[in-house]
């Protein structure tokens, strides 16, 4: 069994175990709706066993860079419908990742000058590229207990719009220091109500959102992503193994489609276990019996190693998919990969987005 072996994820029969990881590319319209160019980009990569889209914001209070993705209004759903149709037309399967930035929202772009929201009034470390240049992350406003159901409803609405768009499912972005992660981790959640303190309370927000998404899509079309080694913005937890194992076990009880973990099994690769954050994967493998996706600098050999060991069922690839629309075919043939142009990751229109050549294009040329 290797990355080219078929696998079942929820109701979907995937032809391989190669997943296109969600990556922000900032090619949506000015109103944050996906368009034909975005659809072409994803359809080019439809040979992946599963395509996961870039994260779409579930709320106008979750706003970041210009031309970022959103999924909270009807025109957003219409734009993502173009994407889903093109991916399906190319023979692919696609989940839409949805998220709320929380304290990492851009204060210069918040509607009406509103303050970003979070689990607690603790600012993220670092800066964001605002309307007038770089500025520090703002100190967020801690959500009142009575406000939390409204945020859960925003995720429910996003799931409904995603389903209306024809997506095969949704992935809840519980990683990278965004709002779900801010509630999960003890370093960013110092609440004293039912959503703070013990891990059972800190995980409540995620579980309520998961239940809302399940009510829309069904349990087998909902995935969740975690990144316990993401600490650059000051996000941290006193016991990440216990925290994420608890969350995985609670998700296992719900029978969701998959858990997606950013952690490498090989030291030295991106998001590998460190002295500060020990390996979480073994504990998650025990806690979650469904399909487990790993991501974090894997190459073909490391991906096959992860699958053969039983620690993972699928492997997600990020940057290699940016520059190689035919990554699955290139891996199958051990062909060289196109290098990626990092200057076009978050801007550039078609350049550095849909203009990377496939091997067949080179041959026919």
Give the overall average pLDDT: 96
Which residue ranges are poorly predicted, with pLDDT under 50 across at least 5 consecutive positions?
none
Number of helices: 12
CATH H-level superfamily title: Aldolase class I
Shape: globular
Give the neighbour order of strands across the main sheet.
Answer: 3-4-6-11-12-13-14-15
| Overall domain count | 1
Percent range of helical residues = 25-40%
Query: CA-to-CA gap between the ends?
Result: 35 Å
How is this structure best described in words?
- This protein is of the alpha/beta class.
- It has a single domain (7-364), classed as TIM Barrel, CATH 3.20.20.
- The chain is built from 12 helices and 15 strands.
- The chain has helices spanning 36-44, 74-89, 148-164, 179-184, 199-202, 204-217, 240-254, 281-287, 300-308, 319-323, 327-332, 359-364, and strands at residues 7-9, 12-14, 18-20, 50-52, 56-57, 94-99, 117-118, 127-130, 133-136, 141-142, 169-173, 222-226, 258-262, 292-295, 314-317.
- An 8-stranded parallel beta barrel has the order 3-4-6-11-12-13-14-15, surrounded by 5 helices. It has a two-stranded antiparallel ribbon with strand order 1-2.
- α3 runs parallel beside α6 (204-217), α6 (204-217) runs parallel beside α7 (240-254) and α7 (240-254) runs parallel beside α8.
- The two termini are 35 Å apart.
- 50% of the residues are buried.
- The model has no long low-confidence stretch (mean pLDDT 96).
